[in-house]
Design a protein that fits this description.
Blueprint: E1 3-7, H1 18-31, E2 35-39, H2 48-60, E3 66-69, H3 80-85, H4 89-94, E4 102-105, E5 108-113, H5 129-140, E6 147-152, H6 171-180, E7 185-188, E8 195-198, E9 213-216, E10 234-240, E11 244-253, E12 258-268
Parallel strand pairs: 1-2, 2-3, 5-6, 6-7, 7-9
Antiparallel strand pairs: 1-10, 4-5, 8-9, 10-11, 11-12
Length: 290
């Protein structure tokens, strides 16, 4: 079963941290991921040069299948005419031609959703009914045992801390739809800090036994971390097995100049108890002091 490298909020431009970027390039091959997910904000101001730098960076990552989606910083903010008439033109030219891509792996289907809303909401995004209907069509074609994952830049649930994030309008509608579709995990970014939890922590849900694992990635390569990840850089590695979904959270340690795992989160697959799961993965190694 596949492993997925989840990075986000690269922010190429004045806030990009070259040392963190090079540390990610150094560790990425050793993770042996089967796919790379980038959940938006490749650039800081949707400028051609910033996208070109981001494109070169992505091309240097291991040559595995990728799912790339835009973030709100990937549409022009101050170039108003461009934002209204052709907001994703540079993104589609230089990063990826599709805004709502789909990636199929061995036993896993990831549905990307473009949550940017250049003409309505610059910051906190939107998910439209048509996008939910498209997800339903995608997941209706896969076998029942397939792991179903949704990727969007904006968050469906607020971070569990003091910053009091605004969620997307009608986020609960989207979560309820995803629960009905058998989605097991949502990958996102935007908050510039990580958290790993469950949709039932925020929304009561109509199926109390079918919450969705929420996996937020902080900013992987910029200085714009927030909250407890202020000035920190992070990414996630998701390991999918028949019984478990395991999320290993990595942080960049400036003194050592490298990323290292700092926590591991294991969830039984939907409808399975832990006593059926293979609980043998080794714990993360602490960062070296050398």
């Amino acid at each position: 079963m596949p492993k997925i490298l989840h990075i986000s909020d690269l922010h190429f431009g004045p806030h990009y941290v070259p040392e963190a970027g090079e540390a990610l390039q150094h560790i990425a091959p050793s993770l042996e991921a089967d796919a790379v997910v980038v959940s938006g904000d490749f650039s800081q101001r949707a400028q051609r040069r910033q996208f070109e730098h981001a494109r070169r960076f992505i091309d240097r990552l291991p040559s595995v299948p990728r799912l790339l989606i835009p973030g709100n910083h990937d549409v022009p903010l101050y170039r108003v005419a461009e934002r209204l008439l052709k907001p994703h033109a540079l993104y589609c030219e230089l990063i990826h031609p599709e805004l709502n891509p789909v990636l199929t792996l061995d036993g896993v289907v990831l549905a990307g959703i473009d949550s940017t809303s250049p003409r309505q909401a610059i910051s906190n995004g939107r998910i439209h009914r048509g996008q939910l209907e498209r997800c339903a069509q995608i997941f209706a074609k896969v076998p029942p045992q397939t792991t179903r994952i949704v990727v969007a830049h904006h968050h469906f649930a607020p971070g569990p801390d003091y910053l009091h994030d605004r969620t997307m309008p009608r986020a609960r509608r989207a979560i309820e739809c995803f629960v009905d579709l058998g989605v097991e995990m949502i990958l996102g970014g935007h908050l510039h800090r990580s958290y790993i939890g469950n949709s039932l922590d925020f929304f009561p849900g109509t199926h109390r036994d079918r919450g969705i694992i929420i996996v937020q990635c902080g900013t992987t390569t910029s200085s714009r971390g927030r909250g407890r990840e202020r000035n920190e850089n992070t990414f996630n590695l998701i390991d999918v097995s028949p019984y478990l979904l395991t999320v290993t959270h990595y942080m960049y340690f400036e003194a050592q100049g490298r990323f290292a795992p700092i926590s591991e989160h294991r969830f039984p697959r939907m409808g399975r108890p832990f006593d059926s799961a293979d609980l043998t993965p080794s714990p993360p190694s602490p960062p070296s002091a050398s």
